[in-house]
Amino acid sequence: KDVQKEREPHVYLSKEEVKEKIQSYNSSVTDKLKMTLNANGIYTGFIKVQMELCRPITVQSSQSQGRRAHSNNETAFYLPEGCVNTLHISSTNTVREVIEALLKKFFVADNPAKFALYKRCHKEDQVYTCKLSDREHPLYLRLVAGPRTEMLSFVLREHETGEVMWEAFSIPELQNFLRILDKEENEQLQILKKRYAAYRDKLEEALGGVWKPG
């Protein structure tokens, strides 16, 4: 079970420290996804993001890009569990830009405001997760933690139920949520009715055995 951890303070590195960390990072990389330091001090590299989405996403076909949402070229489906995507980004890219780039790469039509990026750390047999703010820089976090995903990994999730930005959803999406909730409510109601009907039958059978006419 994930354990929420306080956000660690951001530590700024000098250009020389960045250069040394990139050299150390690249020497430890095993998947060839190395970082590159540019002359202007900006560095580029790769991050892997695990998709942990509970709700279906809406995907556009490449031909429908730029058209109005909810066209006939859009399909809603659930992502398979354990889906991981790789992005090439720079040290200047923020969390919000990473989320937008990730959705754009896979033609996801849903509003980026529906999603949040988390960092996940493994320490002392516990899993710590922390929601990243929109202004944080994922590649910097990757550099500081090193290339091992056991030390740090990124996870894309929907916002928690208590903080969902409902205004980011379209009317058809909200209506679909209501239909799903109504269906689930009816299913649970039928289960409860069958359960208590069985209890009633057993009670009536027991009472009939006790109160026999004399």
UniProtKB/TrEMBL annotation:
GO terms for molecular function: zinc ion binding. It is found in: Cytoplasm, Cytoskeleton. Its main location: cytoplasm. CDD domains: RA_RASSF3, SARAH_RASSF3. GO terms for cellular component: cytoplasm; microtubule. SUPFAM superfamilies: Ubiquitin-like. InterPro entries: RA_dom (IPR000159), RASSF1-6 (IPR033614), SARAH_dom (IPR011524), Ubiquitin-like_domsf (IPR029071). PROSITE patterns: RA, SARAH. Pfam families: Nore1-SARAH, RA. Residues 163-210 form the SARAH domain. The keyword Metal-binding applies. Signal peptide: none annotated. Coiled coil: none annotated. This is RASF3 protein. It comes from Ibidorhyncha struthersii.
